[in-house]
Structures are given as structure tokens and as C-alpha cells.
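= Paired protein data =
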Amino acid sequence: MIRCLGCGVIMQNEDSKKEGYTKDLNNKFCERCFQIKHYNNYSFSSKDNLEYLKNIEKINKTGDLVLLVTDFLNLYNLNDIEIKNPIILVITKKDILPKSIDDEYFLKKIKLNVVGKIFVSGKNNYHLDELYDMILKNKKSDNVYVVGFTNAGKSTLINKFLKNYGGMPEDITTSNLPSTTLCMNPIKVNDDLTLIDTPGILDEGSIYLKANFEQLKRILPRKTIRPITYQIKHFQTLFIDDFASLTLDDNNITLYMSNDLKLERFYKDKVKEDFVYYDIDIKSGYDLVIKGLGFIKFMKSGHIKLGLLKDVSFEVRISII
């Protein structure tokens, strides 16, 4: 029984329409992962969250250490993942974090029952040694599970561990499209550590599930985020690319999201036919989170009209900045 090195499914060479298909069982990757890795050719998996939640149940029975992986823009719903094991919260993509934000102060504001919290970046090896030491200190066995919402950067993190602490080439499939890893996939880093990559939990309200590859390239930050502040003194509508709109009056707001997104202002109430609209009362010092896109900090209390693509979710929280 041979598993694909990328997504973890059992390889087979009999049915090209089923998961795990490869022409040659000696290949490291199934055809789907090969196309993702080399050509960014993506086919969405039909798996749903029931399968992913079953994995959490299996993990809870082991008692092993879990790396709960997310990034700065997607710090929500973490308590909804009912992990009973010891947890290290790993916030990836430190390189996109605005330079004005202090790591230590930020981590203190995250209330989660964990044995450790840390910022890392696979791109520039930021704090990877510290994370490795934290893992060795807290692991219950050689197996450590890597869990998080889809597109959290789990596979990228594992790639770096393979290279830095296993002396192996970075060879796991990574993609900035959802649902790349399909099955639990044990990856031996060295004699003391096996990281078990798990399928990303699908956040069904995330804009990731509505966007195509070209749109995701604008949504996902590729460099340090430069927060954009608007001092709004007159009634207006702000469009955030093709993905959201905000109609409001007399407020100061700061956007924390990819700087590749196109922003447009109109000094009137402007609507878009394919948006669903929500009326929201928001307080000073709160964030409006648009799942998968980022968040907006409000400096004044007020009423806003939020437009979103159908099935994209939002939440309001006390500001984390």
C-alpha cells in the first residue's frame, strides 16, 4: 500500500477519475498532486467536514501533541476545533504581519488553552528552531499532529521541518488552493519526530471556497501587509475588489488584508447585484472579520451596511490589534 507523498491518499493505477490515480505506482505523487505541484492545475476534492471532524476524534484518542496552525488574518473559530490533546498554537506567515505589530503583545491577546503560542515563517525560517524545541519539550510520543483550517500553511511548515531537521529535500505538495491534503499523512522528519499532516478543515464561510486561482492570488498576501486607514467624514461605499463592500458614515477604519486587492470609493450608497447585504451595528475598538479575506478595525461606533458574496461569512470581535 503506497500513499501519495503530497495528499496522503492510497495510490492506484486503475481508475483515473478516482483519488490517488497515477500511471505508475513507482511515482511519489498521484496525478492530482503532480498537476498541482508542477502546473498549478487544481481539481477540488469532494470531501466534506464530516470526514475532517472524524480525524479530530481519532487524534483526541491518541493524547499526542497537536500543532494548531493558522495565520494572522484567520484567527477565528479556533475554539470550534474540539481538540482535547495538548496544543501549540502556530501562527504562520510571520513575514506578512504588519511591522507595527509586536509579536509578544499580540500573542497575549489570543485567549486559547494551549501549552504554547508562537509566530513562525517558513519563508525566512523565523522562530522555527524555537518551535522545534517547543515540540520536543511537549510531545507525548514521536507523533505530532498538524491541524488547521484549509490554506493555513501546514504543508509549507512540514516542508521546512523536513529540510531543517531531517536533512531531506522539501517535497510535499503545497498549493494556495483549498483542500490539497486529502488524508492523514505521516511524514517522518527524523528519529525523534513524525509530523502527521491532516486535511485542512473547510471553513464553509470562507471566501477561499468562492474564489478561483487568479482571485486567490489577490486575496492571499505575498508580502508584508501595509494596513490601509480611511478617515471617513462623509457617507460613502468602499468596494474591496470583487469580494465585499462597506457603506458607512463618520468613522475611522483600518483594513488588514492583502495589498493586492483593488479598493474603490464611491460617495454614495452603491450596491452590487451578486452581493448579499447585512446591516450591522459595530462598536469602537472592534474588528469586522470577513472570513478568508482579512479584517477591518473600527475606531468609532456606528452603523454599517456590509455586502458579501453569497455564502461568505463574517463575524465581529474585540480588536486583536
Q: What stands out?
A: The helical segments are 31-39, 49-62, 103-108, 128-138, 154-166, 213-219. The two ends are 48 Å apart (CA to CA).
